Amino acid sequence: MSEILVLVEHVDGDVKKVTLELLTLARSLGTPAAVWAGPGYSDAAKAKLAEHGADKIYVADAEEIIGYVVAPKAELLAKLVADKAPAGVLIAATAEGKEVAGRLAVKTDSGVITDAVGLGEGFVADQSIFGGGVNVRSRVTKGTPIVAVRPNSIAPVAAAGAGAEEKVEVALSDAARAARIVERVKQEKGARPELTEAAIVVSGGRGVGSGDNFAIIEKLADSLGAAVGASRAATDAGWYPHQFQVGQTGKTVSPQLYIASGISGAIQHRAGMQTSKTIVVINKDAEAPIFEIADYGVVGDLFQVVPQLTDEIEKR
Ligand code: FAD
């Protein structure tokens, strides 16, 4: 079976969950081959990739790969596409992943699909487009299919792969060195899961009323082991940091459970969350448009409903 390249997402040497999802998906399409870009590769990383079915691991761990903005990863993948002729390439549909996918498509003269939420035989993708308003089924018809898949689209399942390593050297072009990273600033990593990877997201909007009131959203999130999200109205008001904004100009999330409190459901907010598997809405206005996409809805005051919900969950 042909190889399916999977670009590994990693932070501080830790393989991110979305990579395990992509490896699981790759197993249904061919033979998964993980591509490690940048420093931090270790036996633990190798074990995790192999446990999730990586038959091959291409390791390009030169510091230089992460020293420049995005382009080196696209050049690395383009080299592997030329050398190994894989059946396809899977990349996480994160902000960086989508940019790598686009650049790779140009370099390899291939088609690219972004924001896939499913992928089946023949690389036919279910794709969420127009800000999540429309789902289409699409397939790349030119070159090597490159598909950027949204985190949380499928559940990662372990299945041992050989994990055979192969070192890859890549001679970066001058173009790849055009924008050098001068500093990386680590974001505070709290106890909560990362927003785009979390299985549960609890979000608050303008209805929350103030930054201090976000404590009740956080309390509910913590009772569920969830990440906290916010609408743009809440982040623009300075009630919650912008990095937690969900929506068209924020993060795209696709968790198992999304709880929206005091959020009306503007199209730009929906664009970032409507592929969530189960959506629970708490809003005092029964006519709020977000109820149209809710699986469960509570018409009520969030200042009563959210603490009661938190209490019930904490009792269990
Ligand atoms: P509102 O629309 O004001 O809704 C507040 C809701 O809270 C109401 O439904 C109200 O009934 C309810 N409420 C009030 N008090 C309570 C209470 N005590 N209990 C229960 N419910 C209560 N928005 C995003 O979220 N993400 C984006 O990425 C984004 N990108 C944008 C990009 C562009 C180009 C533009 C033009 C807009 C964008 N927006 C985005 C803004 C978007 O259009 C909406 O303005 C925003 O989502 C509204 O946020 P909200 O639902 O919190 O506020």
TrEMBL record:
Please list the residues that bind FAD.
206, 231-232, 245-249, 262-269, 283
- Could you tell me which SMART domains the record lists for this protein? ETF (SM00893)
CDD domains this protein is in?
A: ETF_alpha (cd01715)
The organism sits in which domain of life? Answer: Bacteria
UniProt cross-references to Pfam families, sorted A to Z? ETF, ETF_alpha
Q: Which Gene3D superfamilies match?
A: HUPs (3.40.50.620), TPP-binding domain (3.40.50.1220)
State the Gene Ontology terms under molecular function. Answer: electron transfer activity; flavin adenine dinucleotide binding
Q: Which UniProt keywords apply?
A: FAD, Flavoprotein
- Recite the UniProt cofactor note for this protein: Binds 1 FAD per dimer.
For this protein, the record's InterPro entries field holds: DHS-like_NAD/FAD-binding_dom (IPR029035), ETF_a/b_N (IPR014730), ETF_a/FixB (IPR001308), ETF_alpha_N (IPR033947), ETF_asu_C (IPR014731), Rossmann-like_a/b/a_fold (IPR014729)
The Swiss-Prot or TrEMBL record describes its family as follows:
Belongs to the ETF alpha-subunit/FixB family.
Q: How does it assemble?
A: Heterodimer of an alpha and a beta subunit.
**Its function?**
The electron transfer flavoprotein serves as a specific electron acceptor for other dehydrogenases. It transfers the electrons to the main respiratory chain via ETF-ubiquinone oxidoreductase (ETF dehydrogenase).
Q: What is this protein called?
A: Electron transfer flavoprotein subunit alpha
Tell me which species this is from.
Sphaerimonospora thailandensis
